[in-house]
Each structure stands twice: as structure tokens, then as C-alpha cells.
Amino acid sequence: MEQSLISLERMRTFVRIAERGNLAAVARETGAGQSTVTRHLRELEEALGVSLLTRTTRRTALTDEGTRYYAQCVQILSLVEQASQEMRDTRQATAGTVRISCTGALGVLHVSRLVYAFQDENPGIRVEFGLTDERIDLVRDGVDIAIRLGPLSDCAMKLRSLGESERMLVASPEWLRRNGPVRSPEDLRQLEGVRMSRVHGSDRLVLRSTRGRNHVVPFHGRLIVDHGLAARDAFLAGRGYGPAHRWLIEDCLRDGRLEHVLPDYTLSPVPLSMLIAPERTNLTRVRLCVDFLAEGLRRVPGISR
């Protein structure tokens, strides 16, 4: 093995290829030419005496040896970054980039403001803030922190529970005037709702009474949206009733633009969690951001521990 060909630079190149799955994408990301990226990978494989990746015209995939080597490289590079950070002074230790991903509506209405406040307190930290309701791969997409609603099963990431998000049925006063008073779950059966796509079980509502009894009613409607802000606008436009997170419509309830439907019945809350890439948890800037966001989200209306 030619040890001189095994360098941190080549390890970093290999890790990014493994995560992005595309040599051209890594070349654009790093600013290096694709020939340089290809050469780094070839020299590393020659030095190790194994193939780390299988390549097709469209994508690369890790071999078994590549999978094991990738995990080791991630650990080594993380240790190198941590060691370097410990040698910097306090100002430098809180410099660098934190990459955050958040579910769309929560990010627009609440988390964005927390990001601004975090940067005001930590002016040396650059934040890349992405909004998506799709599940992402933190390692592949280079994300440090992901804030997600709903149950999570990714045990490879460090999980921090932020509490539960309260939900309620809402509608506009105009819609309620048109459709008459709603006094019981049975009154909802013939009424039109605003549904969310890609939500399991969105074709029914489970409402719990103050006596602890569950009432299951069908939930249907001609309008189906895929974003919380679109649902909020639809409620305000009188297009139907539907379930909403309290943090999504709290201001609308407060100023009377929306009303709480069947306030004596409750909907089950939804878990709110933070996922952190394991190899990033020991970075000062990431720890600071995790703690800041967790504390701020506890003050958002409708988020309960």
C-alpha cells in the first residue's frame, strides 16, 4: 500500500462522493475539476487495494469494503475537525456553518425567527436553512440538524424530543355561517374538509370527548393540499374545515379569522423531534444551535412537553 496516497483530502473526497452519489456533483460542490475528484478516488482505491465504489453512467454505489471504509473515514474526519476546533479560541469555536432542515410551515412561521435570533447571538456562524416536508438523509444531504413532525424511525441519528404539537379542528366564521352550527362529531359527516396529502389516515378524524370516548368520523373534501400554509389559507378562504396545528393558526384564532370547531373534543397530538447527525454532535456551533432551537421551540404556542 502506498501510504502517501492516503490523505485527509482524498478521504474527504471519497466521503462526499459516497454521500452525494455523483462525482460531478462533488466537483461542483468543492470547486475542484471532475478529473481531480476522479484522480483522488482512483489513487485512494489503488493505495487500499480495493474498490470502494461501483460506478454506472448515472450513479455510484458503495461496495461492502467501501461501506466499512466510509464509516471509518467519517469518524476520522470528525475527530480531526473536533481536534482542530478545540485549538481555536472561543470566537473561532463558534464560527463555521450549521445546516438545518425543517418542515415547511413550522420553519416559515417560527423556526426562521429563532434562526435569526441565534445568528444575532452568534454572528460568526453561517446558517444554511432548508425547508422541506420530505424525509431527508442527514448524512447524504450534509445536514447537521433536522426538525420533524410525526413519528421517526431513523435510529442511526441522535434523536432529541422537543415535545408534542397540539392539534384542533378549525374553520372560518363565514364557513360556519354557511354550513350551520357544529355541535357534535356526527355533524361533520356531510361537511367538506380541507385534507392534507401524504398524511396517513387523513381520510378520517378521531375525536376524543371529555369523557374519554373516541368518535371516528369520515373526513372528505374536494381540496387536498400538500403544505401546512396552503391548508391555513384554505381555511381562511372558507374552503372547508379541518385539523390544524395550533402553532399554524394561533394568530388567526386570536383575531377571530378562524374559530375552534368542537372545542370539547380533542385530536391526538403529533410528536415534534430534532434529529442530529451523530458525527456533528460534538461541534460547538452545532451544540449551541441545538440547545437554542430546542429552548425556543418550547415557547411556540401549542408545543407541550
From TrEMBL:
PROSITE patterns documented for this protein: HTH_LYSR (PS50931)
Domain of life: Bacteria
HTH lysR-type domain ranges (all copies): 6-63
UniProt cross-references to InterPro entries, sorted A to Z: LysR-type_TF_proteobact-type (IPR058163), LysR_HTH_N (IPR000847), LysR_subst-bd (IPR005119), WH-like_DNA-bd_sf (IPR036388), WH_DNA-bd_sf (IPR036390)
Protein name: LysR family transcriptional regulator
Keywords tagged on the record: DNA-binding, Transcription, Transcription regulation
Family, similarity comment: Belongs to the LysR transcriptional regulatory family.
Origin species: Gluconobacter cadivus
Taxonomic lineage of the native organism: Bacteria, Pseudomonadati, Pseudomonadota, Alphaproteobacteria, Acetobacterales
